[in-house]
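Notes from the 1:1 (GR / supervisor)

We went over the backlog. Supervisor wanted to see one worked example end to end before approving the batch request, so GR pasted a single chain during the call. The sequence is below; no edits were made to it. Supervisor asked that the structure be written out right there so they could see what the output format looks like.
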Amino acid sequence: MPTDTVVVGRVADGRFAIVAVDGDTEPTGPAQELTADALPAAIAARQHDGDVRWVWADSALVYPRLLEAGVRVARVWDLRLVHGILRDAQAVTDDHGLRARGEWDAGTTAPSSGDTLFDLGEAASGIPETLTAALAEYRRQIAAIASSTSPGALRLLCAAESAGALIAEELHAAGVPWSRRAHEDMLERELGARRGGGLPARIEQTAAVVRAALDDPSASLDSQPRLLRSLRRAGVLVQSTSRWELSEHDHPVVAPLIAYKKQMRLYTANGWAWLDEWVRDDRFRPVYVPAGVVTGRWASSGGGALQIPRALRTAVRADPGWTLVTADVAQLEPRVLAAMSRDMALAEAASGRDLYAGIVERGAVASRAEAKLAMLGAMYGATTGESGRLLPRLRRTFPRAMALVDEAARVGEDGGVVHTWLGRTSPTAGSTWRDLQSRASDAAASGIDETRARRSARDRGRFTRNFVVQGTAAEWALAWLADLRTRLSAFPDVDAARSAPASGPVFHRSPHLAFFLHDEIVVHTPVEYADAVAEAVRESAASAGRLLFGSFPLDFPLDLRIGPTAEKA
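Structure output shown during the call:
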């Protein structure tokens, strides 16, 4: 069935319009004008008649209101996110005026629950949402891709990024099934009972032990400078209060201080205040930001979804009659590096097993710990110390993979840009960086300038070295999510008696994605679908690998679990 393309935008007097366009981005008929209240039903009806790709300014502003009305769309082209990709893409040789349209660089503001349908608009984001502006930007984007040096890869990247925008809003709408009781029980075990007028009792007790060990009853434990002074007076000569540096010292204060810092981190980041703000109706609903990191990785602007500690996983509890399918990818980034570089030796080391164990079996290093240290050093630029000592062995054993990241580092050190497998391009070197390099190359440059310039160049090389791998891993993850989303949408609804109402009108009767973290997903599913959902998760991972890397013989094994909680066994 062919896919229709329909553009959505504002028209006069608070009304909206939808208009179908052809392959040349020209309207195929008159626009259909609608009130804001009528728009969800019109979109649902249009989808019922055939496969549609919706084009709109920003999914974060449009899609939440459709989900609240019970309308889910299959495909979208998110103009804001695509603009960000194409604006910087090295493959775009003729931007057709796209880069000059700075208004599309504006950030977005997600609607809150009190907003009415589409009432944010330009005042909230700065992005032009009119039908005319959307049509014009869509034309620029399609033309820029068509004239680029890698149109197929860029189209795939833009489609995946847009799918991610839908998934981010769906994750927020469905939420993570969360047991407030389990969360509160964990807090009481770790911190003591909640107290309205002060810190929980166990934190106060730990603080008292720390102060006694410091022989300083008035020591300020939450002020870094003051705590450092107290430690030094007690003979603990440290430059920071990091766990690693403290652990190097044999002093009675070390263990209780590390325990206090852990307790306070839990209390401030995920304590009762966090629970009151972010968990409602048995759901944790964080705010995801697709491409919030320059490499294309997601970020979070509310709820801290990407920093949930393992201890809190016990609170992730499926609804009665439902269960969770949890999966994460083993060594995603090194596997992606093998595929990008077409390094058969590294692919064979990863085939059907733990990649680091495979590196050991090939004789590159002596232990799994060394294999992990060396590989992470190669990808993240830790090329000195123990990691640097091991890197030459990796270069001999896996020359193609190491050459790819080494070349990316060289380009970055020279001030150039690199790109991911599908074409997301790293930022250009800034004027401050270029001025520093220019001063250092001057005949009259001081030794200090030269040292700073070399350090700055190495830092940029480490960034570009990792950019190509982390960014491509993010592309694989988007492809995995998008394929799995499609597979889950094909499952029949369960009967109303088996529904999970807190998951909202779109997802309360069918399996759905509930959580995503870089290389890990959680699906909330009726129990009877658990095995089939697990198979869909596996198949979508394999499909993502084929979509990006074709027939290159590389697998993406999953640590996959089925159970009522997300706690790892």
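Supervisor's comment: The CA atoms of residues 15 and 79 lie 20 Å apart.
Batch request approved.
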